[in-house]
Task: structure prediction
Amino acid sequence: MSDFDPDFLSKRLYDRKRRLLKARMRHPRHGEVEILVRDVSERGLGGRCELDLAVGDNVIIGLPDCAPTEGRIAWRKGQAFGVQLDAPINPETVKSPAPGERPVEAGYQVPTHFRASIETKRPGFRTRTPGIDTKTKWS
Result:
């Protein structure tokens, strides 16, 4: 299934909007997994994941700013797959959250051994010593 295959494109019922965002998918065999959404339409989406999905599997998709939506795997090729949604969604509202709106784990602190040290000089790394100007031409 390729976006360049004219037969495949003619079978699409809805125009797709290109997106690149992470979403959640609840699968009957694999549980809740993270997926990469590549495009979204009113009644479907295309994505990628590393799991072994089967055509016809019922799934629940959790997209940012949308209620969880049920659907089924319509096609699969390698890690790419398509989901036909049971209820319509508005593709214009499906976007990655802005950096300020992304959830942040409260109270998280970087472990001590991963924090930057006060010393900024690298051992064995020296700065240039004053010398000849490198921009002058040799005669």
